[in-house]
Design brief:
PH-domain like; 2 domains; 4-stranded antiparallel beta sheet; 7 strands; elongated
Length: 152
Amino acid sequence: MASIIVHNGEHFERGKTRYVVFSLVLVVLIVVSVLFENFFGAIILFLLVGGYILFALMRNKKISIRTSEQGLAIADKLVPRTQLLQRSVELDAESWEVKNLIIVAKNDKLIFSLDDDKESTKIFMNELNEQLPLAENLEFSFTEKLIRKLKL
């Protein structure tokens, strides 16, 4: 059974400018909401930002994926082999190394950014080759494309 360390979701490098602009926009929106006595709007903004931060922290967590006879063990959850359809990889445009692993299940596409050494990655990918076919034509929905483009 081979295993690999990945980010729990797709990992994006974001610059400081993005966080400064996001914070400034949030502060302006909250101040405007309070000035117009829209306290409900200010509370909703706080909740949305809290959810976004929680979601970002969960996705940045590193987990392990292990192959097994029953399927794939992703962190503490086993995805049965009957649910797994195909897999794909995305390469880094500059280094041509494997950047993301995409697992297509019956109801979902699971995207993981790799964070392991080359040897472990190679062993894991070879074993995964034997278990899951390579996706011929992997298409993303408009929402998935938008989320990836905006690096959310």
